[in-house]
Amino acid sequence: MTKAHSETGDPFLLTPGPLTTSASVKRAMVHDWGSRDATFVRFNREVLDKITEIAGGTGTHATVGMQGSGTFAVEAMLTSFVPRDGKVLLLVNGAYGKRAQKICEIAGRAVRVLETAEDTPPDLAVLGAALAADAGITHVFAVHCETTSGIANPIAEIARIVAASGRRLLVDSMSAFGALPIDAREVQYDALAASSNKCLEGVPGMGFVVCRKDALLRTKGNATTLVLDLLDQWQVMEKTGQWRFTPPIQVIVALHQAIHEYEAAGAREGRHARYAENCRVLIEGMRGMGFRTLLPDALQAPIIVTFRMPADPRFDFQRFYDGLKDRGYVIYPGKLTVAESFRIGCIGRLDASHMRGALGAIREMLTELGVADGAPAAA
Ligand SMILES: *Cc1c(COP(=O)(O)O)cnc(C)c1O
After folding, report:
1. Which of 75, 96, 145, 306 to mutate for ligand 1's pocket (most ligand atoms within 8 Å of CB)?
2. pTM above 0.85?
3. Rounded CA gap, 70 and 91, in Å?
4. Which residue puts its alpha carbon closest to atom 12 of ligand 1?
5. Which numeric CATH code is attached to 31-263?
6. Less crowded by CB within 10 Å, the N or C end of the chain?
7. pLDDT per position as a tens digit, 243-294
């Protein structure tokens, strides 16, 4: 049995985060930096400005960093942008939409939930009708790629409907930003949340929110927590160049390196092309072994793929998972309610050769388990 590994000897993470990062991104972290160190302050500024540029928001938008995982940025976005007397319509088709609902409920923001099944995009006609019927709705929240299933939600169409109704859009683009198109010059939103360690391929520890500046300036008094107040975080950074509280220095310096590598490899188009090829190779190889994807190709984002659990009773998922791990590939259990499943990610510092390596390991594991065909039970 061969055990594949990264340049630093680690298994490859075919997961939705944390992800496999380049050796050079990891190496960027081996220093101590004071928060007032001039080089760090410059790197920090460059990271925030580059993210705004990647978003297509230079001049109109500002990126506000937030210590913590991606959810900290989503919670900061919702609680900073939705006023206490506001109301959010949430488009839910997976765990991340449900998490946003929970955030709003804890923060005491009124919600209206439009939920579809995990393999079904939101119904745009229903969205339009709901906005027309309830003048109390101030904001709409949507997830760009719902990582629960890997579905690409129609964010540009959602944005058009929200703008036409005079409401404001908040986007969780965590697993899509930097790879799937969402250009602020074309897609109107007030705020978009993402993080250091998904498609930008940094290490985990920093979320960020790309904010339309005029909308951000109108959020004064909305925040219900000190640490998640995006306006205060932004104003202190603008005035002093400093984070309000201890910055995740190594994470920021690693992200600086990751963004440098991102630009050198063709920026968004380059990243999208690599992930799309990973996804194509993966799906083709898996279908060749009988596995079936949850989603039709038209709804599948090249980020993470959900496969239905094989029907063969000899397919023991824990043994399958452990055997792949022993061969150097970490996959991810399913989180679906509609079907038994597991997931394989296409993002991180991986290319088609890694996907082929993973497929070889999967083939070995099917042989070891005595499973001739990965087909799920007929629906
Ligand atoms: C990863 C992810 C998040 C954030 O999750 P954390 O575990 O807090 O980093 C939020 N939304 C989506 C769609 C994600 O994929």
Report:
1. 96
2. yes
3. 18
4. 174
5. 3.40.640.10
6. C
7. 999 999 999 999 999 999 999 999 999 999 999 999 999 999 999 999 999 9
